[in-house]
Amino acid sequence: MGTDRIDLPQGTLDLLILRTLALEPLHGWAISERVQQLSSDVLRIQQGSLYPALHRLERRGWIKAHWGASENNRRAKYYELTRSGRKQLEMEQDAWEKLTAAVAQVLGAVREGA
After folding, report:
1. First and final CA of the chain: distance in angstroms?
2. pTM for the whole thing?
3. For 83-97, b where at least 16 C-beta lie within 10 A, e where not — what string?
4. Which CATH number fits the domain that encloses residue 75?
5. 86: which DSSP letter?
6. What is the domain extent for residue 16?
7. How far is CA 82 from the centre of its chain?
8. What is the largest CA-CA distance in the chain?
9. Each residue of 26-54: pLDDT tens digit?
10. Counted domains in the chain
11. Helix axes 83-111 and 12-23, enclosed angle (nearest 10)
12. How far out from the chain centre does Cα 71 lie?
């Protein structure tokens, strides 16, 4: 299934991170693992993209971080959604659903020869 992986479309990384953190606070590695798991190994977030995105979301006030111990008892930075992050997630999820529905509509029309 490794050949079925796709690159993330521009702008979806923030949405995936916010959605993943809506479930529970996680450290960076766990965020990337959760996205990979939930996408059936299709989506993989590269560490070089993940941490800049986490810092950007933190600067925007959509997530906050605290230090804690990971599953293997190592010091790790845990991220969690803030109230404004939950609002942002809602807005981005609505926008994503409208966008994907519109793209699907166009693709369907093209297939049908419209």
Report:
1. 34
2. 0.85
3. eebeebbeebeeebe
4. 1.10.10.10
5. H
6. 2-111
7. 15
8. 58
9. 999 999 999 999 999 999 898 899 999 99
10. 1
11. 130
12. 21
